[in-house]
Amino acid sequence: MSIHGFSVTTAEGTAKPLSDYHGRLVLIVNVASKCGFTPQYAGLEALHRATEDRGLDILGFPCNQFGNQEPGTDAEIQEFCSTEYGVTFPIFAKVDVNGPDADPLFTYLRAQAPGDFGPDAGPLYEHIKNSRPEALGTDEVKWNFSKFLVGRDGAVIRRYESTATPEQIRADIEADLD
């Protein structure tokens, strides 16, 4: 199994098979417009522009499961991303990433890369420990802007927690592009 067996829903409501990304490196990110990590959109867009021609696709999936930080409609989210950050990579329909209604793609991603979330995440760890202690020690996505790097074959390579910026993970991505 790989991500290529899944389809996702575009912001316009149509199905998009992830098999369309076969042969390309993919960075899947759960995003939000009203989060302390929202400025990562700028870094993600810069990364997208610098590496798209070399085989990287960034896919954004809005999620409102963390602090009600993505309350808008799909159309409002598209407008925000375009206007505020000049985002040109695809932002798909809003999804749940955890729980019984989690999008199957994220259930798969979490199982393939459970994460390594601990005290080294600093203030985010303290926040999760105090607000969602049941999430610690699980494969759940802990917060917005978690990132999953997927290889050209559709297999999950690595998970990056919200605190890892696009600039910090760029070297890993560059290594996988070469």
Automatic annotation (TrEMBL):
What is any Pfam family matched here? Answer: GSHPx
Annotated keywords: Oxidoreductase, Peroxidase
InterPro entries named in the record: Glutathione_peroxidase (IPR000889), GPX_AS (IPR029759), GPX_CS (IPR029760), Thioredoxin-like_sf (IPR036249)
Q: By its UniProt entry, which PROSITE patterns does this protein fall under?
A: GLUTATHIONE_PEROXID_1, GLUTATHIONE_PEROXID_2, GLUTATHIONE_PEROXID_3
- Keyword field contains Protease: no
Tell whether Oxidoreductase is among the UniProt keywords. yes
Q: Name one GO molecular function term.
A: peroxidase activity
User: Which family is it part of?
Assistant: Belongs to the glutathione peroxidase family.
**Record-given protein name:** Glutathione peroxidase
Which species expresses this protein natively?
A: Nocardia aurea
